[in-house]
Every structure is written in structure tokens, then in C-alpha cells.
Amino acid sequence: MGVPGEDAPGVLPARAFVNWYNGHPEYSWVGPEVDAALSSNPKAVIVGNGNVALDCARVLSKTPAELADSDMAKAAADVLARFQPAEHVSVVGRRGAAQAACTIKELRELTKLEASVCEVDAAELELGMTPASAEEVAAARPRKRLHKLFEDISNGASKGMTLPSKKILSRCTLRFLLQPTEVLTAPDGRAAGLRCVRTSLSGAAGAQRADPTGEMVDIDAGLVLRSIGYRSLPLEGLPFDAERGVALHEHGRCNPGLYVAGWLKRGPRGIIGTNIADAKETVKAVLEDAQAGAIGGAELAPLPGALEAPGVVSWDAWLKVDAAEAAAGAAAGKPREKLADREALLAAAAVAGA
């Protein structure tokens, strides 16, 4: 974010938070950070309104019972259950709802939680609907459907807000036209909230700027997650577009014998399905080049030895991990019980550690 206070305890990258609750072995350090942050103040603010931001908001807004039915790592679920659902989760974007980076599926899921109500401020929704924003919404059906759901939430018409039996324990508020200027801190140095400046939109459709107005807005929170996008870094010898943050390629081919997939190929956008299609294109290029004799031969000779090195997990070994997690999950009434420790993963795979 590049604002004062960003290094305070209680401020975390959203990706680290997601990796932690998904059981990534290298992110166990996040648990104590989240515990301390929500212990100091059971409210959270998330900067950014893409799908990752909404995933974080949904996890923080779930009840312990909802978490228990998921495949979330047990260590993470145990920490979150002490505060679940979070008292208030604010999701902050510097432009309007018409420019929100999320997709309708992720937004709709926020409206269907057991004990959390999803809110959109009607005034902020209206302020962001400039003539240029109206053009942006009208130009694409997915954008039109997404904005209609924002309007329904603002009007209290979404399904999740009208269930008569719903006991509200938490609120998730989607905020717009707010640009962070400072992470507020408590006397002990921990994050205590987020200070933002109100923005207004100007410019043509598809290129609107968020201009600061001078009006300041403070949001109370003990946990601050930043979800403001990702940028790939170049590798030596890799053709790279520094402006877009992607590798230069042709159907996944970068250099002879060098291929690219994922966000390094397309940039940090799209859903899992679009990235699968991109990966298939790259795999097709690899197979075509191998069949044509463009790759392979002597340069692959060291590969079998490298694949037998300590700590390398083969496909068959990974299937053992998958079976172990699925069996543990079935015993606990969950889709799976993720192994979040490197040694436990290697033990389940029955391979020697590095």
C-alpha cells in the first residue's frame, strides 16, 4: 500500500492469510499473528475488492460450524473459531462498485453466510455511478449482473439478508471510493484501524481515476489485510514485459525449451478455469515441440537423477498424501484434513526429507 503504519503487527498480505488457512507448510507463522490481531480487536479491514479479498472476508465472516464443514487446515480453523465470526469485516476499494475486481459468484457467497449480513452503503454506490461508470456497466453482461447484485445488497434484497431465522452475529460491509492513507496504531504499536481519504471518479469509461477529495474516513480494525494485486518478477534470461508483469511468449513458448504458465503467463486475473485453459495451451506446446524433436535428448539426461533427490514428491507419492488427507477428513466428517507440516507431508508420501 505504501502508507505509514503498514509494517505494524496485525497488517498482513491477503495471500499469506489464504496460504495459512489452506495449510501451506511455510505459512504457519500467520496463525499467531491473526490470533494476536483479533484478540486486540475482533474487527478486520481488507484493502482491495478482488476475489481473494472476498475469499478472506467470507472466511472471517463464517461461524465455527461453517468452518468445521470445510477443508480448512485444522490449526487455522482452531485459531479462527475463537473469534468467529469476526464482529465486523470491511472490504475497501478506492474506486466504485462498477470497477470492483470480484466476480458475481464470490460476491453472492458473501450474502449466504449463516450469521453474517453483507452490506453496501447506498451513498457510496451512487457516488461511484458516474456517467462513465454507467457506460462500463452497460458494456459487459457480467459487469451488469455484478452491479445489479451490489444494488440488491444495498437495498437489503439479497437472499442472505432476508432469511427470517438468521441471527446476525457479524457484518461484512463493502466500501467504495476510499483510498488508504495510513494504518492507525494503538499505544502498543499494533494495528488499530485504517485511515482513508474519500475519492471521486473522473475520466473516460475504462480509464477513470480515483481523485482524493480531502474527506477522511477511519475504519476500526485489529486485523488489516492488503489484497491489492500481484506482480510477477523477471528471471534472468526470460523475455519479460515489465509494464504488464508477464513473460513474453507465443502459445506458452518463451525461449527454446522454456515455457510459461499461470499468472506469469497471463497476469493476475481470471479464475481457475481460465488458468487451466492457459496451462493446457502451454502443455500442448511442450508436447508438440517434443514430438518435433525441438526439445529432449541429451539435455534431459540429468532429469531422472534430479527427480530422485531427497524431498522430491512424485505423482504416486502425492496420491498417498491425497489418500491420507481424505481418510483423516472422512474420520472427522470433513472433505479432507490438510497436512500443514512439511515433515508430516513427506511421511505421508513415504519419501525421505531434503
Automatic annotation (TrEMBL):
Keywords for this protein: FAD, Flavoprotein, NADP, Oxidoreductase
Keyword NADP tagged: yes
Cofactor(s) it depends on: FAD
A GO MF label: oxidoreductase activity
Leader sequence residues: none
Protein name: Adrenodoxin-NADP(+) reductase
Native organism: Phaeomonas parva
